[in-house]
Recover the amino acids of this structure.
């Protein structure tokens, strides 16, 4: 189990016309990772950005870059995102046909391997790959758009995943993404969450640095 709690600032909610400044502001607040949500308009209804933006983020920050692939056929783009500078690559259990192979390939390419599950996908679907993952991402909203309302049953799923981690003597990180704010971040931490993907509650605030500091202090 990881004792350090990690704030992963999600640039999906940032002002892309001032991306370098926005990332700098969250760094000053103690952000640990920069989170990039990749959406293709097919696996999820929204369309965001590709490896070029990840490459730009890599030039802006020395923090780990956490890339969440909400796309069809992520295997085809693993190399491009890792070459662009991704330190962590997370794929969806619901999309990847040969999950063992994909997770192994991410590691072979030099990145940490994560698997994400949607709100309706049970924890038990991960049993066969739990020994391969560096991270499990629990979606606490239905993926596709920033600023959605937090799904409360996600807390139970994190408890369940934390129990599985203990039973299997695993050391993967547990990450939560979607609707995370100062109203629920402590509850998630107490359930066993290690990594908190925060978008609107950081970049949607008047003072990005102060917002990051406040959330960081709540889970320290």
């Amino acid at each position: 189990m990881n004792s350090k709690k990690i704030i992963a600032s999600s640039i999906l909610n940032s002002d892309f016309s001032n991306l370098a400044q926005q990332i700098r502001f969250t760094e000053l607040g103690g952000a640990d990772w920069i989170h990039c949500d990749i959406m293709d308009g097919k696996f999820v209804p929204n369309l965001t950005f590709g490896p070029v933006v990840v490459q730009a983020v890599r030039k802006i920050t020395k923090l780990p870059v956490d890339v969440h692939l909400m796309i069809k056929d992520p295997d085809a783009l693993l190399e491009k995102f890792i070459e662009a500078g991704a330190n962590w690559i997370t794929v969806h259990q619901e999309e990847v046909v040969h999950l063992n192979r994909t997770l192994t390939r991410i590691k072979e390419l030099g990145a940490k391997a994560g698997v994400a599950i949607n709100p309706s996908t049970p924890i038990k679907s991960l049993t066969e790959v739990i020994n391969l993952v560096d991270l499990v991402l629990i979606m606490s909203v239905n993926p596709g758009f920033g600023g959605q309302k937090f799904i409360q049953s996600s807390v139970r799923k994190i408890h369940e995943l934390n129990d599985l981690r203990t039973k299997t003597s695993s050391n993967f990180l547990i990450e939560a993404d979607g609707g995370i704010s100062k109203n629920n971040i402590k509850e998630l931490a107490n359930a066993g969450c290690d990594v908190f993907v925060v978008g609107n509650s950081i970049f949607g605030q008047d003072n990005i640095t102060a917002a990051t500091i406040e959330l960081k202090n709540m889970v320290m």
